[in-house]
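Data deposition worksheet. Section B asks for the primary sequence of the deposited chain exactly as it was used as input, without tags or linkers unless they were present during the calculation. Section C holds the resulting structure in token form. Section D is free text for depositor observations; keep each observation to a single sentence. Incomplete worksheets are returned to the depositor.
Section A, Depositor: J.P.
Section B:
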Amino acid sequence: MASERVNDEAFVTLATNDTYALGCLVLGSSLQRVHTTRQLVVMITSGVSAPMRQQLVALFDQVVEVNVLDSSDTCNLELLGRPDLSCTFTKFHCWRLTQFKKCVFMDADTLVLQNIDDLFDRSELSAAPDAGWPDCFNSGVFVFVPSEETYRGLLAFAVTSGSFDGGDQGLLNSYFCGWATEDIGKHLPFTYNVVSQAFYSYLPAFKQFRSHVKVVHFIGAVKPWHQPFNSVTGQVSAFPNTGHSQEFLQVWWNIFMECVQPNLDPGHTGIVGELASLSLGGGGGGEGGSPNKRDDRERKLQWEQGQADYMGEDRFDNIMARLDQKISDTKQHPVGEPAEVMSSQRLAEGDTGAEK
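Section C:
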């Protein structure tokens, strides 16, 4: 007999654009697959398009639009290597969901493998240790109690004290500064927020506790939706040196292809449009969309991570040959002629940067 739905507690996530909305859809689907009895809530900003909002409305119990809260701490964000995180303070809006008595916030790049409704037995602010500095908690998964007072306190703290890492995690750890020492009961087991890199940093422990992993967190700039996926074989190929587990990337993609991808609008641009064009088991390039687009995007991600293939495809003579070809194309089609305009459009499509 199915358990009754609990209406005053909720899992909450956030989408600031269409790409992260993909992650929210997979996260919500993964929660449904483990038969959660709690409400599913997604906060969105104006960066989420109307077609994607429709997909979110179909899955989540509540879709709440919020304003972007920007972090001006660009210096620390650059030190962290993630200047794209400037809008992550937006998640503080979750404390304004006072229609609920308790909630669990989960980042859009998390994936639920086992039922975690027991988190609602925990108090605020319960969270798992951060793998990089265990005296800090990772803010990708945490238990909180909605409160306008806490929301206002966080905003005031952001103005007066800022964040030591420029993002929400640094600020939340400073605001809830007693987490490390005051109450061990607020320390969630690592299995409730296992960052993917941990699989390789301590492999014996991963082998020992693999069956206990409840939530996987795909931290870093390269997300599951950036990984090359072969629509013929149904298999994902992990980028080298990103630290993500092939096993759990495959789980993410299995849920995406079953529950999310069939409902995407093929008219979308960018990554969402490419993923909407996938046809599992179909012909074509196999990697979804244009193979050239996939190759260009994968190479750009590798360059951004400092992983250029200087001895192979990216060696100096190949770069010079490509530059010579571009110069030759420009001479044949001066700027402004239709052929050059189309070429620029194709280049822009193939050079779509990965959202982080």
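Section D:
The first strand starts at residue 6 and ends at 15.
Residues 73-77, 82-86, 288-294, 333-356 have pLDDT under 50 and may be disordered.
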